[in-house]
Design goal:
By secondary structure, this protein is mostly helical. Helices cover 89% and strands 0% of the residues.
Length: 223
């Protein structure tokens, strides 16, 4: 076996392992976002134990972080110049950022719950809907990442679904933000609700950025 053949085999093996780690990481972050969504639903509905939700989100984020470290280790130890390494890392860091934002939001909700501060009932349903659409947007991103290994052309198509979901959340966020300003009377509640909504929008914006990273990796395989 020639050196070039050996190098090619090593690259292919590392590439497959990196894709596996990317999909495992994406699944774990989905669990983070799902737990946050349930936390927001119960907080807005004035039920549930926020401490338990926060612990769950934090534990899942730590597990996602372990997968991130394993992927970095895989890419670092692979042959020089392999695997479009920077593109893999950019995607992974954006997906990890989604988990970090989710943990930040869960920490804020926990503090609000301990302080006895609640969501104004006039916007509670809309906040729950926004959280649900944020989870739906992430599920589209996860599907996009999983398609990378099997069908890069299909992954490119799914990128458009993520962008459409982000646009929908963006419109919902703008409408809800205006309603908060116009309808919520307590100024402290206004600030709290707007902060929650802004962080959800940031999380979904990051999903859009991650889908663009998927597009770059998919194009490497179809061009």
């Amino acid at each position: 076996m020639t050196y070039q053949k050996e190098l090619s085999d090593l690259e292919n093996k590392a590439y497959r392992k990196s894709l596996d780690l990317l999909t495992d990481h994406a699944r774990k972050v989905q669990e983070v976002v799902r737990s946050l969504t349930l936390m927001i639903e119960d907080y807005a509905s004035s039920k549930g134990n926020m401490e338990n939700y926060y612990m769950e989100v934090s534990e899942l984020e730590e597990k996602a972080d372990d997968l991130k470290i394993e992927l970095i280790d895989t890419l670092t130890k692979s042959a020089p110049g392999i695997l479009y390494r920077e593109d893999f890392l950019r995607l992974m860091f954006n997906v990890e950022k989604i988990a970090e934002i989710a943990q930040t939001v869960s920490r804020l909700i926990l503090k609000l719950s301990k302080s006895g501060l609640k969501v104004d009932p006039r916007i509670a349903d809309d906040l729950i809907s926004l959280a649900g659409e944020s989870l739906s947007a992430y599920e589209k991103l996860r599907n996009c990442i999983m398609a990378l290994a099997m069908n890069p052309m299909y992954a490119l198509k799914l990128v458009g679904d993520v962008h459409s979901a982000e646009s929908k959340v963006d419109l919902m966020q703008q409408d809800l933000d205006l309603r908060i300003i116009m309808e919520v009377k307590d100024q402290g509640c206004v600030l709290i609700c707007r902060d929650l909504v802004a962080n959800l929008e940031l999380m979904v914006d990051t999903m859009r950025d991650a889908s663009d990273d998927v597009r770059v990796l998919a194009l490497h395989r179809v061009l």
